Amino acid sequence: MANMDPIPVRVFSLNCWGIRYLSKYCSQRYHMIGDMLCKEKHDIVLLQEVWSEKDYLFLKKKLSCTHPYTHYFKSGVIGSGLAIFSKYRIHDTLLYRYSLNGYPYMAHHGDWFGGKAVGMAVLSLGNLTANVYVTHLHAEYNREKDSYLAHRVVQALELQQFIRHTSAGADVVILGGDLNMHPQDLGNRLLRSYTGLRDAYTETPNFDGCEGGVTLIADNPFISKKEIFPFEKGIRIDYILFKGSSRADIRCDSLSTTKGSVADSPFPYSDHEALTAELKLDSCVSAETGNDEAFKTPESSPGNLAELVDIVTEARTEVKVGLHCAERMRYTAARTGVMGLALLFLELLIAAVPWFALGAEQPFPQTSFYLLAALCFAILLTTSLLYIFYTIEIKSLQGAEDQMRLAVGSLHEKLRGFPVTQPQSSSQRSSEGQEPPALDPEE
Amino acid sequence: MANMDPIPVRVFSLNCWGIRYLSKYCSQRYHMIGDMLCKEKHDIVLLQEVWSEKDYLFLKKKLSCTHPYTHYFKSGVIGSGLAIFSKYRIHDTLLYRYSLNGYPYMAHHGDWFGGKAVGMAVLSLGNLTANVYVTHLHAEYNREKDSYLAHRVVQALELQQFIRHTSAGADVVILGGDLNMHPQDLGNRLLRSYTGLRDAYTETPNFDGCEGGVTLIADNPFISKKEIFPFEKGIRIDYILFKGSSRADIRCDSLSTTKGSVADSPFPYSDHEALTAELKLDSCVSAETGNDEAFKTPESSPGNLAELVDIVTEARTEVKVGLHCAERMRYTAARTGVMGLALLFLELLIAAVPWFALGAEQPFPQTSFYLLAALCFAILLTTSLLYIFYTIEIKSLQGAEDQMRLAVGSLHEKLRGFPVTQPQSSSQRSSEGQEPPALDPEE
């Protein structure tokens, strides 16, 4: 395949904040978003928090000429809120639901009800295959005392696993979405180090947007200062990430974000700022035999591997902390349930005493009896549900921890396989033949 | 990489029927399974229905010398029941939960409670990377009137998607498990045609087992004739499937199954028969540039593509039928709920009449009032839960149908891209540049 002109790809990502009847000016904002997308004609549009299918269908109709290929990722009762619009044909899609996503009783946070997931679409961009991912992780409501940290770390773990395992056949990978993590947060480091994904903001030579690339800013009228405290200027939690392969190079020529307002409009598109990245794709033939192994970024050097081991270990610690919390919560639920049961028995006992001893002398306090019994049943029902819920949480956290232990073991094995100095010498490697192909010299 | 001696890989798969206290001789059977695995020393052991973690830990301890690498796929309250034991290091694992899995109110079928999923493990077999999958699909309780058909088809769809998208980087793919589908069932055809996976039973020159390779047989003392009616000799629903890549060949030298009894034991390992396949892996360098595209089995000829289109269309029809059913069920739930609400209002009305008109002349029928009110609330609660549940089912079925529509569109596009006769002539292809790389000649 001879080198051709680079393919320009404009990618757009926005968290639409589309909760009907609850988000401010929801319908007007969708009209604005639709008009803008129609005009701007991005190649790939990645939207999050499109909670209502009606709004998706509105956009689909509006963009039918500019973006004929589209997919809405359905999941759960409310849906995943994820949508993709594309100029290029979508060949295939796959949705991966995260195993953890907050607590159902934290209804005011609402994350649990929207089944958070990562959606994948396989596109053909010219002669290249692009795997495009869109996702939205659990929100961070209190950075100081973040009770969802373990959940978000597990989501980041699953996100990087899903991307790594599904993108081996892709020439380029593009991820857009609201990660709800600051650039140097654990989950973000885990994602970037493991997958080799590069951040459009740090990679681009031309950035036009708010200082520091922040996407949740104080200047946005839908944002209260409280939400971004103590970061007065805002925080960067929305990203466009990308990586190439041995078969294609990818670079980001420019990145721009909205700045809290839209010209000729009384309010912005959303409470998040929108990102637009201009990417350039270049198909290439690697110097080697065209083997994928040539582009195994995260595991290509002992330094990277060692860093990765540190990050996974750190993540494992966070998951263990979360596991400890969940176990304590389950214990509390069980104890409360037992107390409810004891109360019920006590009540039955008290009720039985006048029955046997006093006869009909005193009137039986029927109302109090029923009220107390109802209370006991309510306690038992609630604690049983909580117990089941925490058991699921514990299983998921244990599963994530198991996977991390495996990963650390495998990374250590690879690290041992590396010779002290380049180039590789086969005598320095262990002789079990368990190294990955990337490390095996020709035999 | 020069060709080396083929790597022999012995793969074992068994549905363990491990429901503690319910499955017959559960603990004794685990001891038998453990002893046998210890003795046989298969390279890869894939187990299903290991519902209790305690039983997994028992096997893990027992096999610690022969199978040092192991993973138990945790999910939901009960778990996925999937476990893998390996002689080779497991580098990475990933679990994908199917979006549909029966109905919670069909408690006697139990499928809904065990979170059915497909587990993946990445292994290094010598210098080759193997993606090993283990899964267990929803059971078929009534072949004539299979109310779970749509669910199983969606599971098969998700299984093939997951395998296709995660195996691009693998040299060989091995899948073992209880698919709960006959060899020519729709889901099975969908899985095999789309992924290019080959069936060990049909591929092997040496088969030792029951006639027709059946794995649920009348001779097994745990099986009642009713379960396999009208197939007197049994049915084949457990499989070992495999495929190679441009970088490795794989063949099945022999396949054997148990035959309903175990020597020196009063009962067999499980109600399913166990499968053992002897595979041979051969790393090779393809004649081409080593590009993966050389091994795109299912899409390599117009005939295959056309067959695939037919199968996906058939699957789409089944999903539509399931969708229609689910919508009808949701409608029934909604109507029953409305009737419950009407009954409640009627009751309140009746209660209000004596209150206003009759005063204290007649005693108020308190007990009946409360009982009827409790009934109304029970109806409302049940129908609300069912309504939510059916909504989730409908969303999942719609999602699957959307994906199939996309897939058919993409397959048609590829079919159009094929020239009428080989070799390819670029003038016959559409000029939009949206064909996948496999079809693009060198430019």
Describe this structure in words.
Two copies of one chain form a homodimer. The first copy, chain A, is of the alpha+beta class and 443 residues long. The first copy, chain A, has two domains: 277 residues, Endonuclease/exonuclease/phosphatase (Deoxyribonuclease I, Chain A), CATH 3.60.10; 93 residues. Helix content of chain A is 38%, strand content 20%. In chain A, the strands form two sheets. In chain A, strands 3-4-2-1-13-12-10 form a seven-stranded mixed beta sheet. A six-stranded mixed beta sheet of chain A has the order 5-6-7-8-11-9. In chain A, α4 packs across α7. Chain A starts with 6 loop residues before the first strand and ends in a 26-residue tail after the last helix. Chains A and B meet through β3, β5, β6, α3 and α8 of A and β3, β5, β6, α3 and α8 of B.
Descriptors for this entry?
homodimer, 443 residues, alpha+beta, Deoxyribonuclease I, Chain A, seven-stranded mixed β-sheet, six-stranded mixed β-sheet, 13 strands, disordered C terminus, transmembrane (chains A, B), Sphingomyelin phosphodiesterase 2 (chains A, B), sphingolipid metabolism (chains A, B), EC 3.1.4.12 (chains A, B)
Q: Work out the helicity level of chain A.
A: 25-40%
CATH homologous superfamily placement of the largest domain in chain A: Endonuclease/exonuclease/phosphatase
- Structural class determined from secondary elements of chain A: alpha+beta
Q: Based on CA inertia axes, which overall geometry of chain A fits?
A: globular
**Could you give the count of β-strands of chain A?**
13
Discrete helix count of chain A: 8
Beta-strand percentage range of chain A: 15-25%
Segments of chain A where pLDDT lies below 50 for 5+ residues?
A: 287-296, 421-443
Count of spatially separate domains of chain A? 2
* CATH class group of the largest domain in chain A: Alpha Beta
